[in-house]
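Retro notes (design track)

What went well: tokenization of the new backbones is finally stable.
What didn't: we kept losing track of which sequence belonged to which structure.
Fix going forward: every design gets posted as structure first, then sequence, in one message. First example under the new rule, 488 residues:
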């Protein structure tokens, strides 16, 4: 039998109910309070789960979610056939199964933009939240709206039919502004520092092209709290579907899998209407920046290091790579000497033990987190995760040797994939491949040309010879490092 409302109704009666958690609120009463853009696995393993937990505790059915995928029609159809229900498989020493009910229904932006905008216009909608990855913010290297992106230009010219997340927000605000309805708030949930502030500035920049009065209205009426989100969520695989079927006896076409740990820190802004997420363990604070920097540099920074170095060593998953003691020591030393010193710890957070806990999370054999998944979009991730601490370390006179090794490994990863003719998943793939194809064997020149690709490295760092020399030197020493890490 397929997961859906009829099955949910039976949970209370059948034995499977002992194996799983399931919604205990009146799903038929759920209103749409949140429109979420980006219906990938991460939203469904994280924010939708926190919301489900809050709904279970409060029975406050104002906060159902309308999930908007950008293109994935199959996900939308499967979720809607299951009345929005899906299984969250928590993979620790044992598997734990939760049927999540906070998503009421799903839409696809590329084929149903009118319905998406009509939903955002509903008076019950108080918030639009997003998990659209770094590239969804359409920012340039200065963190401002990148008007060279074709879809951004499209949205400025045709705001009624937006394609980008920024455009959907602007179009959503525009209809409320035109109809004199109250604004909604926006909750950015992606791995970028000051995610809310940056999204706000991109939205306002686009709105300014449409109507400056609209831009000032958004500026004064809408809140964009900054957030930190954390939960390791590998892609759903056929094993995930099989685990649900084997353990629960029903089929779910769109389950998600994740680690037991999940954290969500949200800037505490007055007037931000939301579910009672604090009852589900969400932390509201005025120092999100400290948590964001710590998580982005310690977790995401070492993730990217593992992704490039691990792939070059022939590993497939984070678990495989971190199970090599030498790789683990390299990562531990990178953390101790170059990453942790670059972070101002938020009050109450001990960075060394935070980092230890993260390394333990990587050593979870039940999580198959593919290095290639993390390696994607390096041109957007490396600046935030690796170049930002490099820049600060240079200013403070600290070492950047190991961070430079990560940059060198990223470049080598791109070189290796280009030579093998493998796809490079990156919005700047074309420019990256072009740069590699022009390599002439003069390492200093090649590295400089690669790092000069438009919009990857900010100008001040590009002009900094300490940085360039350090990456060139790391590139020369990379083979030795890889050989040392590979030696058993
Ligand atoms: C990862 C993140 O794919 C990546 O770039 O570093 O998705 C990471 O797993 C999450 O941020 C964990 O919270």
């Amino acid at each position: 039998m397929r997961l859906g409302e009829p099955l949910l109704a039976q949970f209370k009666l059948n034995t499977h109910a002992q194996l799983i958690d399931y919604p205990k609120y009146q799903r038929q009463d759920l209103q749409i309070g949140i429109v979420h853009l980006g219906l990938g696995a991460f939203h469904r393993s994280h924010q939708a789960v926190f919301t489900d937990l809050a709904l279970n505790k409060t029975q406050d059915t104002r906060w159902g979610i309308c999930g908007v995928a950008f293109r994935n029609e199959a996900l939308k159809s499967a979720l809607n056939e299951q009345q929005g229900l899906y299984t969250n498989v928590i993979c620790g020493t044992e598997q734990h199964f939760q049927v999540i009910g906070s998503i009421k229904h799903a839409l696809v932006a590329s084929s149903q933009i009118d319905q998406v905008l009509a939903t955002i216009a509903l008076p019950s909608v108080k918030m639009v939240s997003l998990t659209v990855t770094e590239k969804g913010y359409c920012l340039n290297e200065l963190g401002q709206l990148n008007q060279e992106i074709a879809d951004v230009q499209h949205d400025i010219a045709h705001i009624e039919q937006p394609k980008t997340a920024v455009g959907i927000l602007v179009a959503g605000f525009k209809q409320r502004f035109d109809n004199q309805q109250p604004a909604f708030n926006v909750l950015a949930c992606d791995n970028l520092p000051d995610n809310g502030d940056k999204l706000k500035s991109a939205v306002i920049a686009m709105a300014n092209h449409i109507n400056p009065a609209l831009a000032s209205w958004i500026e004064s009426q809408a809140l964009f709290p900054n957030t930190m989100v954390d939960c390791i969520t590998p892609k759903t695989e056929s094993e995930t579907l099989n685990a649900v079927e084997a353990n629960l006896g029903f089929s779910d076409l769109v389950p998600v899998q994740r680690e037991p740990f999940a954290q969500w820190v949200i800037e505490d802004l007055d007037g931000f209407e939301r579910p009672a997420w604090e009852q589900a363990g969400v932390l509201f604070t005025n120092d999100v920046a400290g948590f964001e920097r710590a998580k982005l540099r310690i977790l995401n920074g070492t993730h990217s290091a593992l992704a490039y170095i691990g792939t070059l060593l022939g590993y497939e998953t984070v678990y495989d790579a971190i199970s090599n003691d030498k790789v683990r020591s390299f990562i531990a030393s990178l953390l101790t000497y170059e990453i942790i010193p670059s972070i101002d710890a938020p009050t109450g957070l001990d960075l060394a033990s935070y980092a230890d806990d993260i390394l333990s999370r990587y050593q979870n054999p039940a999580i198959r987190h593919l290095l290639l998944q993390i390696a994607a979009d390096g041109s957007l991730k490396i600046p935030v995760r690796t170049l930002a601490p490099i820049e600060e370390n240079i200013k403070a006179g600290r070492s950047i040797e190991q961070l430079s090794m990560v940059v060198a490994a990223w470049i080598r990863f791109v070189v290796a994939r280009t030579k093998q003719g493998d796809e490079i998943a990156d919005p700047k793939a074309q420019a990256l491949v072009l740069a590699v194809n022009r390599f002439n064997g003069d390492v200093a020149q090649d590295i400089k040309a690669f790092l000069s690709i438009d919009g990857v490295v900010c100008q001040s760092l590009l002009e900094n010879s300490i940085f360039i020399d350090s990456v060139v030197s790391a590139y020369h020493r990379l083979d030795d490092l890889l050989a040392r890490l590979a030696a058993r």
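Added context from the reviewer: The chain has two domains: 5-286, 289-486.
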